[in-house]
Amino acid sequence: MYKFILLIILVSGALQGIAQEAEKDTVGTGETEAEKRVDFSVMPYLSYNRNLDFMFGAVPMMMYKINPADTISPKSLSGASVVYTTNGSYLFGLFNMFHFKEGKWRANVFAVRGDIYSQFYMEGLEPGFVEYGTKTTFISLGVKRRISKSMFAGLGYTFVNHKTDFEDDVLPQSTTRTNGLQMNLELDTRDAIYYPTRGNLANIK
């Protein structure tokens, strides 16, 4: 399970890399919003480990202005991630980071649905590896408003559900569900959202 979580982290990191490159390319070519309002990229994904076998997929994404007349807000980012493994596991995710109202508002929507197959070693009268499958759902929503030059405040909501079934019912079915509303305070002194050269980003939840 932890290896699949690591996969999500790696994909998220790759998304930031693509976003940075897209923003860098736009700045470097000197294109105006009228010339190119949407930057579209697709990142292929290929990996392997002994737990999940071969992993392959793609991450299509686009960067755009919600309001083309808004020259202050950074571009928003939307996309999806699809990853499948040869042991039958899969991961599907949707992500959105919105910037609007002349940089005064930020919002994010992130959702992941996955069916993950793995195994663990179980000791006992007949020790051995036991296979299990976990259906995972993760949803995160948030909105923040600028309250000073470098400070944002807002609310967020997170829902997580894990349902695990074990091979031959060696253990009872396990379901874990958590959800909650939280207050967010963000300090952002970066000189750019996707390709900063200086500044800091800190969050308090």
Rounded mean pLDDT score: 84
The total count of helices amounts to 1
Largest sheet: 9 strands, antiparallel
- Pattern of helices and strands: HEEEEEEEEE
How large is the radius of gyration? 20 Å
What's the arrangement of strands in the largest beta sheet?
Answer: 1-2-3-4-5-6-7-8-9
Please state roughly what percent of the residues sit in beta strands, choosing from under 5%, 5-15%, 15-25%, 25-35%, 35-45% or over 45%: over 45%
Q: Strand tally, please?
A: 9
Described by the principal axes of the CA atoms, the overall outline is: elongated
Distance N terminus to C terminus? 26 Å
Helix share, percent: 10-25%
Are there runs of 5+ residues with pLDDT below 50, and where? 1-7, 20-35
Which secondary-structure class do the elements indicate? Answer: mainly beta
Which features does this protein show?
single chain; 205 residues; mainly beta; nine-stranded antiparallel sheet; 1 helix; 9 strands; 14% helix; disordered N terminus; signal; DUF3575 domain-containing protein
Overview of the molecule:
This protein has 205 residues and is mainly β. The chain is 14% helix and 57% strand. The chain is built from one helix and nine strands. The chain has a nine-stranded antiparallel β-sheet with strand order 1-2-3-4-5-6-7-8-9, covered by helices on one side. β1 (38-49) and β2 form a beta hairpin. The longest helix has 28 residues, at 2-29. The protein is elongated, with a radius of gyration of 20 Å. The chain starts with a helix and ends with a strand.
